[in-house]
Each structure stands twice: as structure tokens, then as C-alpha cells.
Fold these 2 entries.
Entry 1:
Amino acid sequence: MTERVWHDVDDYINGLVIDRDDALDRVLASTVQAGLPEINVAPNQGKFLNLIARIHGARKILEIGTLAGYSTIWLARALPADGRLITLEADPHHADVASQNIAAAGLADRVEVRVGKALDTLPALESEGPFDLFFIDADKVNNPAYFRWAVDHSRPGSVIIVDNVVRGGLVLDAGSSDPSVIGTRELGALIAKESRVSATMVQTVGGKGYDGFALALVTG
Ligand code: SAH
Ligand code: DHB
Ligand code: MG
């Protein structure tokens, strides 16, 4: 099995379960047009996030890593009318593109984009918690800090999802000097010893290559 097959199967799956969608098409077009990296979650993964949020009945969501707002829109669409999503983005240009896309999707009333490095903007969110769902998808080096913050600002029943925990298998390299890999491995160790969560990790292949996500349920 090759990456070509993963890609074609993703196209097949997306053809089956993903409706045509002007707002999401706009996000992907703006990503290319504005020169942003095409590292948004895949359509079927975006819908997975949307379904998790709906299954969970999430009313308050925190996302770390907005890019052009692709995963943001999938998640925000799961919210009830009085629900709220805050998304943190370090790059002002990304945040600007995302804000326009979120407004065009009709979600500006529910979504707030906060600009700045997440470690700097998280402290101002102290009093906004607890959040029902977290989607952590920014700089991987800070994943341990983001995960810790999420657990500390959750309630029993909160869900934490972390993207990109496999990185094509690089996560296996215990001697890696790549800060992203080190951060990812530290996250794994943290999840393993964190008694307040029950967690798993799932490998994924598809149009976005070979990676995986962590899913944690806060239990206490
Ligand atoms: N969740 C998005 C993809 C996010 S890509 C989607 O699936 O559609 C990662 C984003 O995190 C990039 O836009 C990058 O600028 C941002 N980022 C990187 N370091 C960050 C930091 N320290 N704080 C907040 N955002 C950061
Ligand atoms: C990268 C970041 C992501 O969040 C992702 O899903 C894929 C790739 C990256 O930084 O290369
Ligand atoms: Mg990601």
C-alpha cells in the first residue's frame, strides 16, 4: 500500500461523506491564495472533529492553532447557537485570513480568534474555563504545556484532542533532536502518567500523509 492509495481512498471517502460546502472551499482556496501552508486537517478529519463535538454536546471549545480556520469552522458548526469557540493563533496574517473565513461561514457570533503565541494568550483565558472540548494543533514543541493547561481548565467529561502525534513514525525516535518530536514524545509520556485522563492514540493515513491523533477524556 502506498501513499497514492491512501490519497485515493481519502478522495473516495470524502466523496461519500462530505457535502459540497462553499465556506470550507473558500477556506482551502484562501489558504493557497494567501500563501499559507496546506496543513489543515483533511475533510474527513474535520468532520470527525465535528461529530465528536456533537456527540459530546460541546458548548465551549478551545482550539490552539487556527491557520485559515478550516478545523475551526468544522468545530464551530457543532456548537449550539449560544455556544462559543475561542481559537488561538500566533501569526497575525493567518488570524486575519481565518477571521474573514469564519465571518464568511456565518460563525463570527460564536467564534473568537485571539492573536499571539498561545503560551502568552492562554493566561487571559483562566476565567473562561472549564472548556468542554480542546483541539490542540499548533507548535508541537509546546504540546506538553498545552495539554497540561487543557487538563487544568477542564471538568470531568471534557475531551482533549491533539493532532499530529505520529508524524510519519518520527515519534519512535527517542534520540531525536527535533523539538517537535521531543515535544510529541513528552506529550505521550505526560498522557501516560496523567491520572486525571483516560486516553488513546490512533494512527491515520490519508490525503495528508501518515500521522495520528490523541484523544483524552478527563475523568477526574
Ligand atoms: N487547526 C488548523 C491547522 C493549524 S496549523 C486546521 O486544521 O485547519 C498550525 C497553526 O498553529 C499555524 O497557523 C501556526 O501559525 C500556529 N501556531 C504556531 N505556533 C503557535 C503558537 N505558539 N501559538 C499559537 N499558534 C501557533
Ligand atoms: C504540520 C502541522 C500540522 O498541524 C499538521 O496537521 C501537519 C503538518 C507541520 O507543521 O508541518
Ligand atoms: Mg495538525
Note: The beta strands are 60-64, 84-89, 111-115, 133-136, 159-163, 197-206, 209-218.
Entry 2:
Amino acid sequence: MTIGSILRAKGPGVVAVGPKETLRDVARRLVSHRIGAVLVRDESGAVLGILSERDLVRAVAERGEAALIEPAEAVMTRDVVTVGLSTAVTEAMEIMTNKRFRHLPVMDSGKLVGLVSIGDLVKARIAEAEQEAEALRSFVVAG
Ligand code: AMP
């Protein structure tokens, strides 16, 4: 199973903010879309960074309420790790586990085509395991 097959089911939508949007705006965006991270993109669509709820919590813990008026670009992670459509789901899970984050933007020929979260990957793996169990059950019953 590949990241491409997950994106086909999930769709290509990625929630993004501009680099100057404040952390308060980012927090609102995360809540209204019920997600844990946004990409930070410039006007041309280029990916500048990623900002997750963990970055927000850290900024507020360190600088209090003042953090809420800081721009996304001041807090985001700039070195964004991405995967491709043909990356195996197991490999993507390994990347998330080793690097300790829960979001992976998906690129195809240098273009952003989607984003998967650890929740998307776990859901797909569970569905696959259930299908395998069902196939084995039918095999045993048929035998
Ligand atoms: P998360 O577990 O996704 O909430 O993110 C934990 C930390 O990793 C935060 O500092 C994020 O900005 C950062 N992060 C999340 N996803 C990525 C990614 N794909 N590449 C690089 N950093 C990331």
C-alpha cells in the first residue's frame, strides 16, 4: 500500500497559511478544520515550512500570550520532510516514528499534491489488516 492510494481516497486538499499570519489565526485554522498542522506557503504556492499544534503550544508555554501575535514564519519548522506518491505506507510510518512528527506533505515532481497524518496511515493499515483477516477466514472456511 502506497501514499498515493491513501491520497486517492482522502483527496488532495491541504490547509495552508501565509508566512505573516499570526499564531492566533493559525490556532483558529487548526480548530475550524479539526487538524493538527498547517503548511506555510508563499504567494507562489512554494512550501516555506510546517507549523503544528506542538509548535503553538511550545511558543505559548515559552512566551505566553505575546506568542499569539507572532507570525507563522517565526515559529514554523523550515526543514520540511516530505514523501512521494510511491512511498510505502510502512516507510512513511517509520519516518514519522523516527523523526517524532505526525504529518508528511506529499510531493510529486516537485509539486505539493497532498498531506497525510499519522491518523490517515493508521486507519489505512487497520483497514488492510481487516481485509487480510477476512481473506484468511474465507480461505479457512472454504478449505
Ligand atoms: P507533529 O507531531 O506533526 O505535531 O510535529 C512535531 C514537530 O515536528 C513540530 O515542531 C512540527 O513543526 C514538526 N514537523 C511536523 N511535520 C513535519 C515534517 N513533515 N517535516 C519536518 N518537521 C515536521
Note: The longest helix spans residues 118-142.
